[in-house]
Amino acid sequence: MARHAQPSAPKSLSRRSKAVGGLALTTLVGTALWAWPASGDDHNGLADGKQPAPKAASSPDAAPKAPAPKAAPDPASGLLRAIPGLSDTVRKQIPENARQVLVVSGRDGNSFESRVILYTRATAADEWRPGRAWDAHNAAHGWTDDHHYGDLRSPEGVYTLTDAGGRLPAPDGTKLPYDHNRDFVAHGTGVEGEPLAGAFDYVIAINYNRVPGTSPLDQQRPNGAFKGGGVWLHVDHGGPTQGCVSLKPDAMRDLLRTLDPALHPVIVMGPSGR
Region labeled Disordered — which residues (predicted)? Predict the structure, then answer.
């Protein structure tokens, strides 16, 4: 999040939609978030120039052949059996009912530059379809799997996305519960001294150390204040954040129109190549 005084919880939350029930969130501790896919050898090549053993002649009593495996998705179709760039450990932490996964991939462990892609699928049995990719900023000092207040690092992990809000009204088509509230104001300047005006015009709460189903302004910290909180997706202000992920206004509006509680969206965030 950008450098600013923590907003106090408003006395009342205006235009609050129906809250989503508390969804469990998962964090990753001490595990590598990212693993680039190995260049698997899927061929039937011949080692050392040897010829394959001849096939046994078929007979009426031979056991029936096993069904052929399902063909891999056609790359030209844009479909993927698994979200790329994630380790098996991370993939297993994505809830089975998630149909939308927002992947935030940091340039490296100490960088504040990221790439964001939203993957969607129709059912749990379907392949993933990648959407648009956006440039983004994360925390000034990069990433950590043990986030603490003030460390200027973004928390790695897999978190649910259930609540949104902002100083501006919700874009038409917004599906997440949205708190339109004048208290979404970023005070002071950013980490590099840049102005913060408009940074909280639109925000989506990342369910790190917060209570799902509440306004992003809610100050409850289930794991204690020392573990930080108020980690959001919000409007980019041209520099690194204190812990949030920031995107251009158009990208935030697109996400607010697309993320759907019925599809159980989650965010997977961390550095590339770890």
Answer: 43-80
Distance, CA of 255 to CA of 171 (rounded, Å) = 10
**DSSP category for residue 179:** E
Report H helices in the chain.
88-93, 249-258
CA distance 137 to 174: 23
pTM of the model: 0.74
Which residues lie closer than 8 Å to 172 by C-beta, 6 or more apart?
A: 257
Handedness of CA 202, 204, 205, 211 (dihedral sign): positive
State the catalytic residues.
234, 244
Long-range pairs for 222-230: beta carbons < 8 A, 24 or more residues apart: 225/149, 226/148, 226/149, 227/147, 227/148, 227/149, 228/147, 228/148, 228/149, 228/150, 228/151, 228/155, 229/149, 230/1, 230/6
Counted domains in the chain: 1
Domain holding 206, by residue range, is 98-271
pLDDT digits (tens, 9 = 90+) for 66-125: 544 444 455 456 788 899 999 999 999 999 999 999 999 999 999 999 999 999 999 888
